[in-house]
Specification:
Number of domains: 1
Shape: globular
Number of strands: 0
Keywords: Repeat, Stress response, TPR repeat, Transferase, Ubl conjugation pathway
Catalytic activity: S-ubiquitinyl-[E2 ubiquitin-conjugating enzyme]-L-cysteine + [acceptor protein]-L-lysine = [E2 ubiquitin-conjugating enzyme]-L-cysteine + N(6)-ubiquitinyl-[acceptor protein]-L-lysine
Distance between the termini: 34 Å
CATH topology: Serine Threonine Protein Phosphatase 5, Tetratricopeptide repeat
Largest sheet: none
Protein name: RING-type E3 ubiquitin transferase
GO molecular function: protein-folding chaperone binding; ubiquitin protein ligase activity
EC number: 2.3.2.27
């Protein structure tokens, strides 16, 4: 992974890892994307889905709540929270 990747590139790489069921690697990419662009709610919901796949319920809920703080209409965040 290149050091100078944009948040979008990191998200795209995270999506590839997610598709390959490499959830920990995807979480790492989404976390780095969040650092670069902390106001993008999608990065939080993408990471939340990885946490759900890994049965890390509380971390998933935290990310969904952060996503909703940024975008109260986030359908994914509402769905993941139940």
């Amino acid at each position: 992974m290149k050091q100078d990747m944009s948040a979008t590139e990191l998200k795209d790489l995270g999506n590839k890892f997610f598709s390959a069921r490499k959830y920990e690697d995807a979480i790492s990419c989404y976390s780095k994307a969040i650092i670069k662009s902390p106001s993008t709610s999608t990065y939080f919901t993408n990471r939340a889905l990885c946490y759900l796949k890994l049965h890390q319920w509380e971390l998933a809920c935290q990310d969904c709540r952060r996503s909703l703080d940024l975008d109260a209409s986030s359908v994914k965040a509402h769905f993941f929270l139940g």
